[in-house]
Every structure is written in C-alpha cells, then in structure tokens.
User: Fold Aldehyde dehydrogenase family 3 member A2 from Iconisemion striatum.
Amino acid sequence: MSREQQIVARARKAFESGRSRPLEYRIYQLKNLKRLFTEKQKEIADAINKDLNRSEVGTQMFETLGLEGEINLIIRKLKEWAAPRPVEKNLMTLSDTVYIQPEPLGVVLIIGAWNYPWAVTIQPLIGAIAAGNAAVVKPSEVCVHTAKVMENLLPLYIDKELYPVVTGGVPETQELLRQRFDHIFYTGNSMVGKVIMEAAAKHLTPVTLELGGKSPCYIDKTCDLSIACRL
Assistant:
C-alpha cells in the first residue's frame, strides 16, 4: 500500500468515525485554523516570499485576510446553513414531514495552485471543514517552501487524520488520483483539469474545476528568462 493510499484510508476511517459531523467540532477546527493564520503569519509570509518573492504585506492582503473573514462568516452562519430546510409538499408527500438535510460528501481531495499557494488551497479546505468532510490537501509542488510550511503547520492546529497534507510532484498527485474520493476540487490549468476529470470519471467522482491559465506578468531584464518561460 502506497503512502498516499494509507493517508486516504486514514482520512476515510476518521470521517466514518463521525467526529467531523458535529457543528461544534467543525467550528473548533475553523477557529484553530484562523489562529494558525495569526500565530504563524511570519512563517507563511517567509515561505511565500522564498517561492514567489511576495512581500509580507502582500501575503497578508491576498493570502490570509480574506480567509479570516470567510471563517468569521461561516462561524456566524453555520448553524443556519446546516439546518434542515422545509420544502413544498405535493400529493405524494402530503402526510410526510418533508425537508432537505445538508450532509457531508465524505472524503474530498483539494489540489492547489502556485500563484496564490496559500489562499487557493486553504479556501476550499475551509469549506470542506465547514461542511463536515474530511479533506486530503495537495499543495502545488511549484511552491516548495509554502507546501512544506503547510505540511508542517496544519497538523499542529487541525485534525491531522481528517485533514492531511500530501506534498510532492506529479507522481504523488497521480497516485492520489488513483484513489476513490467523494469530491475533487482543483485549481489550475485546463490541461491538468482534463487529466483530473478523466481520473475522477473512473469512480464517478464529482469535480469542481477552477480553470484559468492566464496570470499575466511583466518580464524585465532582471528576470531569469528560462525560469519565467517555464512558469
């Protein structure tokens, strides 16, 4: 059994234990995640600076502040969002109690992107936690320092069995895609998006693909042209 198989199996076992379902547990995990942003802001910013040469102020503005606001909103609204919603009856259901009950999907896979390596990876994780899911997090291998910090810090603040981090490159991602998930969330280019959708189809796994491929930038004479072209 590969390392990735073991990680996914542990996440599924943790989900099936039911501990991610209570709203109190979800909120506790989200509060801990928010505390991570505050207590480890410098470590996060330093890692992103090494990967993308982004300033600490830029990281705070574009990578963490929005996430804090999202967590605050979820904490305020989660009880309302998770409550059963009554729906209109018809002749078939006239004598029944009819409602829609939101339920967790199960174990989801989140594959992040390099251009905002913290925000676009952690934002879907916030949603997964709020919905009561387990989530396997795969940060972009392009931002190696950010991925390492994510791998080191997340287990210190949130449930490491429910929300494990898998680092590495294409082989690790391919091995993850061989596993069965209940949803896959990917941010990146359309070429990889097709690969992910094909892998998901083997298990009839639903996907959310946030595909772009257009992150324009200026390349001046101080840049290493070979690296810029590769990115």
